[in-house]
Amino acid sequence: MLRLLVPLLLAPALALAQTRADPEAATGFAPKPLASAERHMIVTAHPLATEAGLEMLRAGGSAADAMIAAQLVLGVVEPQSSGLGGGAFALVLDRGVLTSWDAREIAPAGATPGMFLASDGGMMTFLGAVASGRSVGVPGVPRLLEVLHERHGTLPWADLFAPAIRLAEEGFTVSPRLAGSISSYAERLATTQSAALFLHHDGTPLAEGETMRRPALAATMRAIAEGGADAFYSGDIAASIVAAVAAEPVPGSMTAEDLASYEVIDRAPVCMEYREAWLVCSMGPPSSGATTVGQMLGLLNNFPAPQSAADPTFWHLFGEASRLAYADRAAYLADADFVAVPVAGLLDPVYLTNRAGLIDPKRAGGKATAGTPPWREGRLRRSPDPSLVEHGTSHISVIDSSGMAISLTTSVESAFGSGRVASGVLLNNQLTDFSFVPIRDGRPVANAVAPGKRPRSSMAPTVVLEKESRLLVALTGSPGGSRIPEYVAGSLIGLLDLGLDPAAAAALTHVSHRNRDALALEEGFDPALGEALTSLGHAIEQQPMTSGLHIVVVTPEGRILGGADPRREGIAAGD
């Protein structure tokens, strides 16, 4: 049972984020020294990105330097998932102060609530919306990299670009995952501005083992290395972005002013107590990550911890917690600068205890409806937005020898984003994360489009602290679209409840509900688990669930351990 009252639930996040002049006064501890045998660790989605980050750490760079170098390389070698044309969320723990950074894409000033409606009044098709200029939000990654370097970097800014520029100019070998993505989306890519990047002249996709070069992207990175993020948000690069968005079919409204006015927002992280021992902190609105992960853990606090990863009763409870959390997510989560989001109410322990009473430990429930959190905002009911389509995402976890730690999730939304290209940069389609309809059942939708608004996200970069000492315990996060909160919650259960090492926690079989009609189990699940869950009343579906969990753990002895999800190409590396 949770002991914390709601004001205290959020107090750790507020204290860590806002009391920066005296970190020890804010947290009550000095950062824990790390074992000299393991000074630093980075885990990314591609060996070349991990290598670039490790190069910076070995040169005496900070976790921020390593993350920036790794993110730039990912934009070159893993373009289906992230890059300069996308957005990101980051949690940074530095000298005992935890901050969260919102670099989510923004709808341009010309966006309208009905911009994804077709001329006949119905909705545009999803793929039609993706390919349109209306799908492209103002990118946030370049400005985020600059802000984090200004606040936390130690190496020269331009040095961080060297590995990515070298790979873009000299070329890199197309990996199995990139080749598979190009092949899977070749038909769509052939109709976009990115066809020349990923397809041969005869239309055949680049294959595994071939060399890919991206000279236009290298030139853009050189410009940013020399001129800072302003080189991206103004001048020739900005003009090329505006032109790419304005191209047919279905041009968008982004202007040079939209780009020039983009800002990264320093938001208070949202923390939730788990098992009276840990604080799990993640990204609040416009992301649904912190509240959905927090609600799932808060609901599970009312039940015994699992004794093994094969415990069907616990995974039944996990699915039921997901069912309830996603019902609230659909009703309440959106950009809190535009819509009142009852974050404190959604994580209120009494509210979650009452919601947990809707869970029968021996029988699956039906489709859940949103609850009414005990706060003023909770009474401002809006129509649910149950949309769940998100794909192109990556995650980086890194810690340096001083104890600075960063958990960053980054995305272009769909695989290869919108397919539109400007100055070698693939542009996102994040605005399709908005609801396509602004009003449903006569009520406004919280996640409707508005000028300057940031679309709801599922990204959940996460930092776990020991509750009493505030010592760093773990970093985790994953791609995976709307299943990200489930993947992250599952990894936390593996780490905290089951005591698994990072690699084993990342490899756990996934269970997913999301308030759908059936409980989904990852392909290859143990048939006995499926039979046991079926006996509890679940309709079972088997689905692929290609998470990309990248985890770093600091043991009580100060050792640093890293683990990468075996479902993708990522690796962990440290000294």
Task: Note the topology.
Layout lengths: L5 H13 L4 H5 L13 E4 L2 H12 L4 H15 L9 E8 L2 E7 L22 H6 L9 H12 L9 H9 L1 E2 L2 H9 L1 H4 L5 H4 L12 E2 L2 H13 L2 H4 L1 H12 L9 H5 L4 E3 L2 E5 L3 E5 L6 H12 L11 H21 L10 H4 L2 H8 L35 E8 L5 E9 L7 E2 L2 E2 L12 E2 L2 E2 L17 E5 L5 E5 L7 H14 L4 H6 L3 E2 L6 E4 L4 H9 L4 E4 L6 E5 L5 E5 L6 E4 L1
Parallel strand pairs: 18-19
Antiparallel strand pairs: 1-9, 1-22, 2-3, 2-10, 3-6, 4-5, 7-8, 8-15, 9-10, 11-12, 13-14, 15-16, 16-20, 17-18, 20-21
Explain this structure.
The structure is a single chain. The chain is of the alpha+beta class and 575 residues long. It folds into two domains: 6-19 and 28-32 and 266-388 and 455-574, 4-Layer Sandwich (Glutamine Phosphoribosylpyrophosphate, subunit 1, domain 1), CATH 3.60.20.40; 46-86 and 96-262 and 400-440, no CATH class. The chain has 21 helices and 22 strands. The strands form six sheets. The chain has a seven-stranded antiparallel beta sheet with strand order 6-3-2-10-9-1-22. The protein has a six-stranded antiparallel beta sheet with strand order 7-8-15-16-20-21, sandwiched between helices. The longest helix has 21 residues, at 312-332. The two termini are 40 Å apart.
Helix tally equals 21
Largest sheet: 7 strands, antiparallel
What is the domain tally?
A: 2
Low-confidence stretches: 1-37
CATH class of the largest domain: Alpha Beta
Output the CATH topology of the largest domain: Glutamine Phosphoribosylpyrophosphate, subunit 1, domain 1
Helix fraction, binned, reads 25-40%
Global outline? globular
Cα distance spanning the termini? 40 Å
